[in-house]
Amino acid sequence: MSPAMAAGVTDRLWEIGDIVTLVEAMDTQPGKRGPTKRWTHKMAKRNERYFDVIVESYEPHSTAGLHGPVHIRPIEGQPFPTHLRVECSMDLVDTEKYPVGTRFKIRAKLTDRLGSGEFLYSYFGWAPEVLGKPENSN
Fold it and tell me: Which of 28, 73, 108, 111 has the least CB density, counted as fewest CB within 10 Å?
């Protein structure tokens, strides 16, 4: 007895010929394709230039609405405020590679998504320059 028979879905054991008959009976003409979504999150600032920005990893006081316990932010003295979020390679928040507090130089641009605030974006495939790890790390 097959699992489908035990569940009451069918009363007989199907053979491969039964499945072939079903497939051949199906409409083989492809249907009309619907519209495609090109950008699910439209960028309002698409042509901003990239800057060298020094950033650091940190643990925010609250992670409500955020992904993961470690994040990246610009350091003080940069043209960007320290509260600005940074979207970049996940390697920078990997604490097995870099302890919290490690500073990096990245190429980033100021951008935003329609309906949300500004953030710095750095292509995840670009390798950051590691500027230093915190004093208390190995």
Answer: 28
